[in-house]
Specification:
Elements: E1 2-9, E2 16-22, E3 37-43, H1 48-55, E4 60-66, H2 75-88, E5 95-100, H3 102-114, E6 120-125, H4 128-134, E7 139-144, E8 147-154, E9 159-163, H5 172-189, H6 191-198, H7 201-204, H8 206-223, H9 238-246, H10 252-260, H11 266-278, H12 290-297, E10 303-304, E11 307-312, E12 320-325, H13 326-335
Parallel strand pairs: 2-9, 3-4, 3-5, 5-6, 6-9
Antiparallel strand pairs: 1-2, 7-8, 10-11, 11-12
Helix pairs in contact: 2-3, 4-5, 4-8, 5-6, 5-8, 5-10, 9-10, 9-12, 12-13
Length: 342
């Protein structure tokens, strides 16, 4: 067991530790209070050994396995989790532990936030995307009637355990999808990290990259826990990305990669495209239906009539957070259809 970094999320009474290292799963009770009845929520795409390793450290455990995939992050799966919690006899003194990617973390967190008006929640992210982004910050939600994350809550975990060893079982596409979120954060908040990504640091020291991405999100969440202002910068690439994701065929991180391009200056896009290609992320928007993407964006929770909050990047490490019209976003998307021409 090696803990390389311990980060403290400073949120007053809602603060918690984030542990980053290797060979941590089998010692999860050293980081979580598992001397209780613990419901471990995972999905069918996560190796069973991960949830079983955590279960072995609990006083009493029940593993709840839900189907894999974003399409299952819905009210039916949420209802199933809650039924299992009730059948297990989970009480307020007990805990819910998410062992999986962002979909698992979202659903388990939302169930923990709402079951008995809130039980303890711990998060063990097992994808790169969830390790660098969704596992911290307290956002949890489910999709409803085709709208992504429209039912949810802000509910902070009690602790987060990030074991880099689990990344060895991810396929290359999932790793690439996670790197897209790192690129996103570097573009708005850390020009040095963006430069290091240009120089392929992610191939040489992935733990360093994860740590630096976590530090960016930690700093943002501490200043704006409930997304009233600064935290909106974490939506860079998501305004259009969620619309692209709704069309199907892409992973979330791949949609963020595509969603960033129209929101960048031409100068930034010229630097960004080679990085995304090196990470095996998509850069070609030519097959995207701009009308469908914008129509979806109008129903996103960031929308406000004919406008929405949008994040733009003109130079790496900086951002503009502005209200943008959907007609402007449509034109930006259309102009980015041929990325090679940027």
């Amino acid at each position: 067991m090696t803990v390389k970094h311990t980060l403290k999320m400073e949120l007053g009474d809602s603060g918690y530790n984030i542990y980053l290292g290797s060979d941590l799963l089998s010692s999860s009770d050293k980081f979580f209070d598992l001397d209780c009845r613990a419901a471990i929520v995972t999905d069918s795409g996560v190796p069973k050994a991960y949830s079983e390793a955590v279960a072995a450290r609990c006083r009493e455990a029940k593993i709840i396995t839900v189907p894999y995939g974003e399409e299952n992050k819905n009210i039916d799966t949420y209802s199933y989790i809650c039924k299992e919690l009730l059948a297990f006899g989970l009480q307020r003194k007990d805990a819910v532990v998410a062992v999986g990617g962002g979909v698992v973390g979202d659903m388990a967190g939302f169930a923990a936030a709402t079951y008995m008006r809130g039980v303890r929640f711990y998060n063990v992210p097992t994808t790169l995307l969830s390790q660098v982004d969704s596992s911290i910050g307290g956002k949890c939600a489910i999709d409803f009637l085709g709208v992504k994350n429209i039912l949810g809550a802000f509910y902070q975990p009690k602790a987060v355990l990030i074991d880099t060893d689990v990344l060895s079982t991810l396929d290359a596409r999932q790793l690439s999808a996670g790197l897209a979120e790192v690129v996103k954060m570097s573009l708005t908040s850390d020009k040095d990290l963006f430069l290091d990504l240009e120089n392929e640091l992610w191939k040489k020291d992935l733990t360093n990259v994860i740590y630096r991405a976590l530090m960016i999100k930690k700093n943002v969440v501490e200043q704006d826990e409930r997304e009233s202002s600064l935290r909106k910068i974490l939506n860079f690439g998501h305004t259009l990305g969620h619309g692209i994701e709704a069309l199907g065929g892409y992973l979330h991180g791949e949609c963020v990669a595509l969603g960033m391009l129209p929101m960048c200056s031409s100068e930034v896009a010229r630097k960004l495209i080679p990085i995304l290609k090196d990470m095996k992320l998509p850069t070609d928007l030519s097959d995207i239906d701009p009308d469908a993407v914008i129509e979806y964006a109008k129903h996103d929770k960031k929308g406000n009539g004919d406008f929405c909050d949008a994040v733009f990047v003109d130079t790496p490490g900086s951002y503009r957070l502005e209200s943008a019209s959907f007609s402007e976003l449509y034109e930006r998307l259309k102009n980015s259809m041929n990325s090679e021409a940027i």
